[in-house]
């Protein structure tokens, strides 16, 4: 009984942490979209914010290395961290430029391809198993399908309005959320960039899980990741924007607020991911992506004054059902694993007791 309570408490901690991180990333996308309207450049935003994030992580990295025994930072591990940083810089650049061309809602919607891609990659690399004779595997598959069906319903089907924001507190932000087909070419460009971004995200989840098995230090991995992303995005910006040096000058307005907020949020977000992927695996990260579209719809209704339509409600229900189906499958797998471990611990004791009697 105590083991079951401890398991569910542990699940609640992971659940809360991932919900907070997904809510934060949707909020950051919205804030970034607002800052770009004031002239903030994507490369400057990423370079400065990830540099601030790595500086904030530095004390934790030093402290964690002193307080625990870890394997040496070999060239192989550093190379894998560098590759993770390269993947990270590629997906944050494509992701934020994609948001600039479209909006945060589309970014959240397209991120629903992440669970499917990560699930496939996890099976290929033998990090996940599918056995249709087990209810947990069926639940994970069905939950992913429900989430992927719910996402396009949220975006493409409006239906009648079920909630109207009477007095939006941030009415001047409404220009930041164009209608779905108001600028077709920009919408397609943004969608393609966001799709590429989520392919990189899926690959990075797998690599991150592999690194954490070899070097289980979330703060250290996050520090090197943030530093690599800062360096690579800054170098890319220097090349792409070589004729526009003014992009690196930051004004004391929403652009500075977005950089500082992102700099503080990024290390927390990535430490949560590194910690979660170590104990729960890469698929656990991916299954929270469908929930971000529901969060984006709610935040748009509250902060941008967007109305809530029946399509959003139906799609949100499908996404939530799929989300909890996958969560149920993962929780049952963990429970089965825990019970198996306890049985294996008891068996040697029984064998020793019988030997003494003989």
UniProtKB/TrEMBL annotation:
Cell compartment(s), UniProt: Membrane
Main location: membrane
SUPFAM superfamilies referenced in this protein's UniProt entry, alphabetically: Multidrug resistance efflux transporter EmrE
GO molecular function annotations of the record: transmembrane transporter activity
Alphabetical UniProt keywords: Membrane, Transmembrane, Transmembrane helix
GO cellular component, one term: membrane
Transmembrane spans: 12-32, 44-63, 75-99, 105-125, 137-159, 187-207, 219-240, 246-271, 283-302, 308-327
Membrane-topology descriptor: Multi-pass membrane protein
Occurrences of domain EamA (ranges): 26-153
Family the UniProt entry places it in: Belongs to the drug/metabolite transporter (DMT) superfamily. Plant drug/metabolite exporter (P-DME) (TC 2.A.7.4) family.
Name of the molecule in the record: WAT1-related protein
């Amino acid at each position: 009984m105590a083991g079951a309570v401890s398991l569910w408490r542990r699940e609640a901690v992971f659940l809360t942490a991932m919900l907070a991180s997904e809510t934060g990333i949707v909020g950051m996308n919205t804030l970034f979209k607002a800052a770009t309207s004031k002239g903030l450049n994507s490369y400057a935003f990423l370079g400065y914010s990830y540099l601030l994030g790595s500086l904030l992580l530095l004390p934790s990295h030093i402290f964690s290395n002193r307080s625990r025994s870890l394997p040496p930072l070999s060239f192989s591990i550093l190379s894998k961290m560098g590759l993770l940083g390269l993947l990270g810089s590629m997906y944050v650049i494509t992701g934020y430029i994609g948001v600039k061309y479209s909006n945060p809602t589309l970014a959240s919607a397209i991120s629903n391809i992440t669970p499917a891609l990560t699930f496939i990659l996890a099976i290929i690399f033998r990090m996940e198993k599918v056995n249709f004779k087990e209810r947990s595997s069926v639940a994970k598959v069905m939950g992913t399908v429900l989430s992927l069906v719910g996402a396009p319903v949220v975006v493409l089907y409006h239906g009648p309005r079920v909630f109207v924001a009477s007095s939006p507190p941030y009415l001047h932000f409404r220009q930041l959320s164009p209608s779905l087909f108001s600028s077709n070419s920009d919408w397609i460009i943004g969608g393609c960039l966001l799709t590429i971004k989520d392919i990189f995200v899926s690959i990075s989840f797998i690599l991150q899980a592999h690194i954490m098995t070899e070097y289980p230090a979330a703060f250290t991995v996050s520090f090197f990741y943030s530093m690599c992303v800062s360096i690579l995005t800054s170098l890319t910006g220097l090349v792409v924007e070589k004729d526009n040096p003014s992009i690196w000058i930051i004004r004391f307005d929403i652009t500075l607020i977005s950089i500082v907020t992102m700099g503080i949020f990024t290390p927390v977000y990535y430490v949560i991911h590194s910690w979660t992927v170590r104990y729960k695996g890469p698929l656990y990260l991916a299954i929270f992506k469908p929930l971000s579209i529901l969060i984006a719809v709610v935040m748009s209704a509250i902060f941008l004054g967007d109305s809530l339509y029946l399509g959003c409600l139906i799609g949100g229900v499908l996404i939530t059902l799929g989300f909890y189906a996958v969560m149920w499958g993962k929780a049952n797998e963990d429970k089965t694993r825990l019970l198996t471990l306890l049985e294996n611990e008891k068996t040697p004791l029984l064998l020793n007791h019988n030997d003494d009697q003989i």
